[in-house]
Amino acid sequence: MKYIIKHMLMHKKVALWGITLKTIATLAELALPLILEHIIDNVAPTGSLTMMILWGIAMILISVAAFLLHINANRLASLVARKSTLGIRHDLFNTTIRLSAADADRFTVPSLESRITSDTYNIHQFTGMILRMGIRAPILLFGGIFVTVFMDPVLTLVMVVLLPIIACSVFFISKKGVPLFTATQKKLDKMIGVLRENAVGIRVIKALTKYDYEKRRFDDANKEHVKSEKIASMTMASVNPIMNAVLNIGTTLVIFFGAYRVMGKQMEPGAIISFIQFFTMISTSMMAVTRIFVMYSKASASANRVAEVIETPESLLAEKIEDYPCRSREYHVEFKDVSFSYNGKINNIDNVSFALKRGEKLGIIGATGSGKSTLIYLLMRFYDVDSGGIYIDGRDIRTYDKETLHKMFGVALQNDFIRNGSIEDNIRFDRELSREQIEKGSRLAQARDFIEDKEGGFDFVLNSKGTNLSGGQRQRILVSRALSGDPDILILDDSSSALDYKTDAALRKAIFSEMNSSTVFIVAQRVSSVMQCDRILVLDEGMPIAYGTHDELIETCEIYKEISMSQMGGEVE
Ligand code: ATP
Ligand code: MG
């Protein structure tokens, strides 16, 4: 909740102005029954029509003024709600994009999505409501009680005795609501997860005609969410019948005792009419307070989920250089006894060591799941190694600040993404690159020809995920992004798998002849993609089983030889 308050305080001037207008309008509302009582008990008996009309006009004017003030106050309330939600969403998004890969894995992407959309929406609803009803309802409630105490303390007592019953039930039920709404949001995460998978895998689903299966899966997730929402809402809804029963008993008692007191001349008839009006006002404001509590439970569950992300401490910060001894600057990139595990149980990278001089090219090959991409993630410090160290220019990568480190890389990650925008934007990706650099990158990536064939060339607009490109074209856009700007370290993770052999060969030729100053990592399944590299690392279940040149490995590594033979047959020898 503190984030909600913090962000609302950022707009305190507008909020205060809105609260002031709301307070005046509500006080004006409170005055209306008093005027009515005055007309019935004091003005009507005098028989003065003029006075009656004047007081009537006064009532109308006050009502209109209250109405106009409420409208303006509500506008200001939604302005504050909008702006504070904007701020919360902004903070949440900023934290989300700086989350370490391990933290993002822990939260899961669907959950982060629903926190940014649905949870902030709940917060938005609550902020608006608290500035509208949160001001009006308590004023009417306590103001009503205050005025009625002066009108008739005995009758007020009847009413006041009932209020704690309502307050207690509201309190306990809303307390139960927070975990129930948290559970509901978790079900929503799950539903979004299924939805995302469907959106991503729409083509496979179509191809395999898995509509029914996917429909059922989504229906299940949807039903679970609705069920959870139902439990939470039904629990919260039980407040209403309890409150209605208590308030109806209250009204009956007020009328009963009121009539009794009027008959005994202890009360004027005008007072009882006005009293009942106040009582209705108090009841409706009590209902509004209840609604606020329901919203509070929901918003509080959502606010906790938002805070959980925002309060995640920034991990993988730059460490002190003194704590990490430097190594020889002879090598540009060095892995020294590196081990890493995602789950802390089985090593996904197990004791990997190698060293590359500036400009050298390393090919990484291995079966699927053998840890090739993980090795790249460690080099880019998406995750920290569990033991050993990775060095760039002799300095442990943990001592570089993230920006400096990431600026060294040009990368095309496996399943990297293309966003909706022009080809040029997708290649530039918000970096300071000239058009020449982009053109050079795309030429080396063998993408120039097809880009020029597209309508508008580099201005051709790509769909999100590049769905209006072929697989091979998509890969070449990603490779163009990696190659543009002559990066210090170039990483191509499975970036040529969709290219035909000829294009793949042309790409390799371009990299080997023109990217002399870049140290290059090529991750591939095909031996042909890595065989010209200065060194090749063969991984098997995270373990480095061989390291050397193509010729050396053909001699010494049986597995490598087998892969080569199966892929290239006689060409190997
Ligand atoms: P491929 O050729 O299919 O791309 P790879 O060699 O790149 O495979 P990695 O992606 O590095 O393999 O995965 C190595 C192992 O780590 C696999 O067993 C995989 O299941 C596991 N793994 C990968 N990413 C995660 C993650 N975020 N959380 C937990 N385990 C993971
Ligand atoms: Mg991989």
Descriptive report:
- The protein has 573 residues and is an alpha/beta fold.
- 65% of the residues lie in helices and 11% in strands.
- The chain has 20 helices and 12 strands.
- The protein has helices at 2-9, 12-43, 49-98, 101-107, 109-151, 153-200, 202-207, 211-237, 239-263, 269-310, 372-379, 402-407, 423-428, 435-444, 448-453, 471-483, 501-514, 527-530, 550-556, 558-568, and strands at 333-340, 349-356, 361-366, 387-392, 395-396, 409-412, 421-422, 461-462, 489-493, 519-524, 535-540, 543-548.
- The strands form 3 sheets. It has a 6-stranded mixed beta sheet with strand order 6-9-10-3-11-12, with helices on both faces.
- The longest helix has 50 residues, at 49-98.
- The protein is elongated and about 115 Å long.
- The mean pLDDT is 89.
- It binds adenosine-5'-triphosphate and magnesium ion.
- Adenosine-5'-triphosphate binds next to α11.
General form: elongated
Q: Biggest β-sheet, characterized? A: 6 strands, mixed
> Segments where pLDDT lies below 50 for 5+ residues?
none
Rg calc: 35 Å
Amount of beta strand: 5-15%
Strand order of the largest sheet: 6-9-10-3-11-12
Give the helix/strand layout.
Layout: H1 2-9, H2 12-43, H3 49-98, H4 101-107, H5 109-151, H6 153-200, H7 202-207, H8 211-237, H9 239-263, H10 269-310, E1 333-340, E2 349-356, E3 361-366, H11 372-379, E4 387-392, E5 395-396, H12 402-407, E6 409-412, E7 421-422, H13 423-428, H14 435-444, H15 448-453, E8 461-462, H16 471-483, E9 489-493, H17 501-514, E10 519-524, H18 527-530, E11 535-540, E12 543-548, H19 550-556, H20 558-568
Parallel strand pairs: 3-10, 3-11, 6-9, 9-10
Antiparallel strand pairs: 1-2, 1-4, 4-5, 7-8, 11-12
Helix pairs in contact: 1-3, 2-3, 2-5, 2-10, 3-5, 3-10, 5-6, 5-10, 6-8, 6-9, 6-10, 9-10, 14-16, 19-20
The structure holds adenosine-5'-triphosphate and magnesium ion (MG).
Residues 372-373, 414, 493-494 line the site of magnesium ion.
